[in-house]
Request: fold
Amino acid sequence: MADKSKVDQLVDWVDERTGVKALMDEALNEPIRGGARWAYVLGSALLFLFAIQVVTGIVMTLYYVPTADHAHASVAYIQKAVPGGALLRGIHHYGSSAMVILAVAHLAQTFLFGAYKQKRELIWVIGVVMLLIVLGFGFTGYLLTWDQAAYFGTKVGTSIAGEIPVVGPIQQKIMLGGTELTTVTLSRFFTAHVFLLPLLLALLAGLHVALFRKAGPAGPYHNRDDNKVDRFFPKQVFFDSVAMLVVFVTLVYMAMKMPAELGPVADPSSDYLARPPWYFMPLFQLLKWFPGPWSIIPTAVIPAIIFGALFLLPFLDRKAERNPFKRPIASLALLLTLAGSVGLIFLAKHQDRNNPEFAEKLKKQEEEMHAFFQAPFEPQIIGATTAMVGADGVGAIGAAPAAYMESCADCHGANGEGDADLGPPLTGMSAKPRRTAEDLYKIMEDARAYDLKKPMPASFPDISEADKRAIVEWMLKLK
Reply:
């Protein structure tokens, strides 16, 4: 007998210590009741998507800074300056939407085929929990760009969460880390998005697969091919591999053709018109029909009914029948729920397009987003950005004007925080009715004309009128 190659010897050495050959044999030779099918690829595609999100997310965290004053700049750096960063972020961006679509499709398929029956109750329940986690990924990840859409969209979302009776206010305070969106909020969302939710989803996915392996595939609902049995390898492996390739190519294509959007940095003082991500749009549309105290219906009652029914489904439906055509009420309920959700999304978009006030505002916001997106990356000057995070919870407002940094920062601080020996703080100017924009401009023109505790130089001959106006506008945003 010929001597084994070095590779075979290494494999044997690892197998003696891990039992990897037995594990591979068990995984690849799993019997598939009813034979391998394209209908079974959704679960594998979801696991593949989760792996893509983990890998792309880890790479982006090498550049991302989860603070209100640097989060947006770090995302812009990834998008505009890091080689391959736009592609990486685009894959992650579209991957999050793909996970929602495939998770819903997988759950709907399992529901229609009655695959939650025959001792598969726990597999179904864990799947419903994983769907909630996938939606949690979308909610927590949305804020991390810290642009206008993310900031105000999350503000609306957390406000809706706060409307839920009893637990709402506490829930909202835990999410925000206070009463407003601040660096603390960003840190909490980042921790949940990058650490807590991935860990929880990985554990549940492992348990989901283990229970599925124990119960075995449910097989076709019509039972005509019950006696046919294929092994997982090679036919189902081929089907799954093709599905994964299609998913990956689609994500790359969309990331290249339609790069992930990024708008201007969040300005808490603006009147930005917020809209949620598409998968939360049905709830947003329902809120229009249930204003004020009735908002509890779309925020708490309807979601509780839907997910409560999903959790209890395998325990309520104990009949052996799995054919969707012989379960018309269940099949119709699913189709109406999905069609209603899609219809609400299109209705919300339609109303925005046909409301003159909203349409004009949204168009202007989109133009501002495209203008920022197309502009080249500008390195952030550390110390020249303002992210006043305190009791008032105001977030980043943008870089101080260059003229301010050259002529004013030495006395008043790079962020307008002031210096005990040289100059007072400039924060909170908008809260002082005696200090209007014109007042501030005149102070810079002739400081002696105002009764100041610490007089400034009589004039600023090196600062142009336009620069003075820019400094005044910046000061009035300081909180």
In short: The two ends are 82 Å apart (CA to CA). Strands lie at 31-33, 229-231, 385-386, 398-399. Residues 183-215 form the longest helix (33 residues). The longest strand covers residues 31-33.
